[in-house]
Specification:
The complex is a heterodimer of chains A (116) and B (114). By secondary structure, chain A is mainly β. Chain A is built from no helices and 13 strands. Chain A is 0% helix and 52% strand. Chain A starts with a strand and ends with a strand. Classes of the chains: A mainly beta (116), B mainly beta (114).
Chain lengths: 116, 114
């Protein structure tokens, strides 16, 4: 039982390059999330997926796309990376509880992305 | 506007001393409230959550938090801090609907002196 896994752990991109951050969970959770963490700003929600086949925008979706490939996997894509997207990215998951979503209670280890 | 404020960016306490981390929120509806901990280089871990009912909630690792509606606060406490508690702590607030849209505070870094 690995929990939430993320790949890669580190990445350096040049402005304009594209890449996909991968996330997978093995807890049979329904909901998955992508956050970014910047110094002094806490975590901000980029996109989330309440269940397989659905995705919704969070607080800061511009410049990103997501795919909920199946129940286990939720990927985040940067089509044309910008220096403002330099950040630490966390994937998280949660299960539905009593008719409403639990908060994200399992986080991956993060991907540290630098855009030059 | 919805927001979460953690007034203390950095706190230092001696090992064995008591701890209180402050969290104030601004939220239009009845909030769901959470505390997370992040150890260096790690992802976040949920410490405790408040949905309704008893305003004093118990969490993991000996932490507790008290919801005070009149003060719009949800402060985190621990009676006796251990060196392993050194980490960054985040307060978060979310809607009572079927989403995961949490708003996080900026975080409080806890340093523990031996």
């Amino acid at each position: 039982n690995a929990g939430v896994t993320q790949t890669p752990k580190f990445q350096v991109l040049k402005t304009g390059q594209s890449m996909t951050l991968q996330c997978a969970q093995d807890m049979n959770h329904n909901s998955m999330y992508w956050y970014r963490q910047d110094p002094g700003m806490g975590l901000r929600l980029i996109y989330y997926s309440a269940s397989e086949g659905t995705t919704d925008k969070g607080e800061v979706p511009n410049g990103y796309n997501v795919s909920r490939l199946n129940k286990r996997e939720f990927s985040l894509r940067l089509e044309s990376a910008a220096p403002s997207q330099t950040s630490v990215y966390f994937c998280a998951s949660s299960e539905l509880t009593k008719g409403f979503s639990s908060p994200p209670d399992v986080f991956g280890p993060g991907t540290r992305l630098t855009v030059l | 506007a919805q927001s979460v404020t953690q007034p203390d960016i950095h706190i230092t306490v001696s090992e064995g001393a008591s701890l209180e981390l402050r969290c104030n929120y601004s939220y239009g509806a009845t909030p769901y409230l959470f505390w997370y901990v992040q150890s260096p280089g790690q992802g976040l871990q949920l410490l405790l959550k408040y949905f309704s009912g008893d305003t004093l909630v118990q969490g993991i690792k000996g932490f507790e938090a008290e919801f005070k509606r009149s003060q719009s606060s949800f402060n985190l406490r621990k009676p006796s801090v251990h060196w392993s508690d050194a980490a960054e702590y985040f307060c978060a607030v979310g809607p009572s609907s079927n989403t995961g849209k949490l708003i996080f505070g900026q975080g409080t870094t806890l340093q523990v002196k031996p």
